[in-house]
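Ticket #4471: structure output looks truncated?

Reporter: J.K.
Steps to reproduce: submitted the chain below (298 residues) through the standard prediction queue, then opened the result file.
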Amino acid sequence: MEFRNYYEILGVRKDASQDEIKKAFRKLARRYHPDVSREADAERRMKEINEAYTVLSDPEKRAAYDRIGQGYRQGQDFRPPPDWDAGFEFSGKGFDPREAAGFSDFFSQIFGRMGGQPRRADHHAKVLLDLEDAYRGAVRQIALRVPKMDASGHVLLENRTLNVKIPKGVHEGQIIRLAGQAGQGGDLLLEVHFRQHERFSVEGLDVHLALPVAPWEAALGAIVQVGMPDGDLKVRIPPGTRGGRPLRVHGKGIPGNPPGDLILKTEIVLPPADTPAAKAFYEKMAREFPFDPRGRAE
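Returned output as attached by the reporter:
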């Protein structure tokens, strides 16, 4: 996907006021509107101009665009970074999808999720939580940035902080509604997403974890202890477990009614042959075990 430099398309500086952006749009529209223009690429240019103006004339979209577009040039290969919009508070007005017909994939990828909320007075913000909060519940201090326009027509970001009660069992994509926190009778809708965890990954209500096991644990079976976000859990490894085999522990994923499952992917870890005794043990195994792993694979 190619990056769109909306400032370059309208021919304005990045610190241009709203009046300057409006004047640039009107000037270009008079030149490239298909009904009056004789330019060969008038229709294509007018779509680019409309798209750029749709973003830069809206304080919220402009603030989001300025954040994500730092350091990119027109036409440069672009992929939005994960969770780039976390902590931005947007109003629910969004845009009419019909008005964006013909806009670029860049626009749809960045602003498609801003396409309106159930009530126009409500605000929406994406927030990142720790997986541990879903297991235990918590009260977290959430920092939000709210795009505003100053008296001179420039966009600025106001910061505000809220103490939010996170319910146990909260899941990815869930909306936490804070009544009356959007002003003018509206509610603030917090859309929950989880920060990337160093050990766990989440799919729906299921929680996934790679579980290292020793060869004798896999061969003979064992009870092993697994550190979970809400404490330690004892898990049974069946005898003859192969590497990569998934083990499902029912009800130990995201809490709920019903709860998700914990899915463990076993990884057999070999002790290093870094001492004479360990090396001798491996040599003894090689002599006494009639085992051909490549033959089993065939």
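Triage note (M.O.): checked the attachment and the full token line is present. Residues 253 and 281 are 39 Å apart (CA to CA).
Status: closed, working as intended.
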